[in-house]
Amino acid sequence: MSTDRTALAFSADGIRALLPHRAPMLLLDRAYDVHPGVSGSGIKNVTVAEACFAGHYPDQAILPGVLIVEAMAQLVAVVYASAWSTGADPAADPGTAGRVGYLGAIRRMKFSRLVVPGDQLVLSTRLGQEFQGLTAVTVDARCDGVTVAEGSLTVTQRGPSGAVPATEPDEAARPPLDGRGSHGIR
Questions:
Q1: pTM of the predicted model, to two decimals?
Q2: Residue 186 to residue 180: CA distance in whole angstroms
Q3: Is the peptide bond before 24 cis (omega within 30 degrees of 0)?
C-alpha cells in the first residue's frame, strides 16, 4: 500500500461510513493523521454514560481492557478502509465497511494504568507486514501523554467478496480433542 497519500482525518460520521460497527460497539470518536494502509491516530472519549460502567466495577468505574483493545482494532480498520477507497473521500465508498476484517490475535498487550470516565484515550497504530491475509500491527493508547496500553494485534482482511483467509488448520489436520476421534465420539 502506498505511503505517498496525504494524511486523512475522519469525524465520527466518517468513521461510521467506513466501519460496520454501530453503537454501543462503535468506540472510536475521531481518527486523524491517517496514512492509508500505513498508520493513524484516533480518539476515544471515555464518558460515564457508557453501558459498560453499569456492571464493570459499579463502585469504581473502570473501562474494561477489552474495550481499549477493541478501540485500537477499530483504528486499525480505519487505516485499512481508508486505503481501499478509490475516490477522494474514502468514507463515501459504500464497499469499505463490508471489507473490514476481524481481530485474529492479541499479543504482548500490557496495561499500565486504569482508564476511567473523563479520560481521553489517544490511540495510535502502525501496520506491519501482511502474510497470507494476516497483518501484525503495533498499537498503543495514552491518556494525558502517559501510556495506558500497548502491544500488538494480528488482524485479518476480507476481500471485496467478503471472503476471510483461513487462520486455523482445517478440521482434518487438527488433533483429536480426546483421542477418540475428530469430535470426541467413538
A1: 0.79
A2: 6
A3: yes
